[in-house]
Amino acid sequence: MAAALTNYRLLYLSNAVSRVGGGFFPVGLAFAVLDLTGSAADLGYTLGAAAVVGLGFLLLGGTAADRWPRVRVLLLTSLTSAVLEIFTAISILTNCVRVWELVALSAASGLTGAFSRPAAQGLIPMVAPADGLQRANAQIRLANSVCVTLGPSLAGLLVAATSPAWAILIDAASFVASIPILLKLSRGIAASASEAPVNAADVPGFIDQIREGWTEFRSRSWLWMVVLQSTFANVGSYAGRLLLMPVAMEQHYGGASTWGFLLSARCLGYVLGGLTGIAWKPRHSVPVCVAYLLGGVLPLVALATRQQLWIVLLAALAAGFCVEQHNLLWDTALQQRLPLRILSRAYAYDQLGSELFTPVGLFFGGAIVGSIGISSALWGCAALIGVPTLIVFSAVMLREVSGLDPGITVVQPEH
């Protein structure tokens, strides 16, 4: 028990350390591109490179995390990220950087994320206390929310006062600082035999493992139904949050300053959602998790109906709370209900399916607003979230309560 608690603390600490720098990196990269070319198109190519590569390699990353020790995967991605970011920052400081190098750095960030995210997801049930999995997830996500809230603001001040390179260097330093923690965690897991050695002759081929992950994924109706729901809901959520909300705030609520307030309110909701998750565990976690996605509709409806600013901010806070609760309960459900040997691959299929079409909403959203107006576009995004959520909630609740889905049974991870 003591060893498991120590391993969990090490995982928590390594995650927190790396996340501190993670809040600085996007700001540093964005302003490095803008300082170099001043082109919004170049910035779009840079940000898009991370998204495309990240999605494209998720299945490989998930399979690698199920195939090899997950801590080693995290060590390799941390080391790779640190080296690439250090060289890029030096290039920026010496005025030798070119825009294609920044695009390549962004793509590399997406690549390392495709391997590190499934590995980290699979590590949590290996080291968390057996009776405190949701609490462990909530604590880790709470640290992430705090970093997401504070990191970009601090990074903006740093970039304004110095150079984008220093924000990138802080992220590199956070990866370097996490490496000795991960090394200690690796020794702790080996000592506690949380990740048993596997005979290489018994391990299927890489492609066979990808197929096995797909077979396990589609055999659980509760799993693929929620992912299918998220496929539509995320199109509405991403387009609404990243594209339509800023436009609505600019047109009707004063622009950038009020948009900043809305972002802060949403981030505060993340923190409140994490704090709630530490203490509260619903009985029917999957249906409750599905229902929470309805919270994403609230700020869209508030903006579409042009409510007073305080109502819009309150709706944004509620949306942040609901989204954090959804993500927390969903992560916990995957970890409790799936065998550890396939967990990272299932997470990869989950993320790939959930985010597959989000670029579509961002790409066509601007043209749609020009054709039908901002209010109608906001209502359309709300429908993309609300309609599939209500349908899937009804189906999942039926299976949860009646026990119709054999895949709903809680699985104890194989330690």
From TrEMBL:
This is MFS transporter. InterPro entries: MFS_trans_sf (IPR036259), TM_effector (IPR010290). The chain crosses the membrane at residues 12-31, 43-61, 140-159, 221-239, 259-279, 286-304, 310-330, 351-371, 377-398. Keywords: Cell membrane, Membrane, Transmembrane, Transmembrane helix, Transport. It is found in: Cell membrane. Its main location: membrane. SUPFAM superfamilies: MFS general substrate transporter (SSF103473). It is a multi-pass membrane protein.
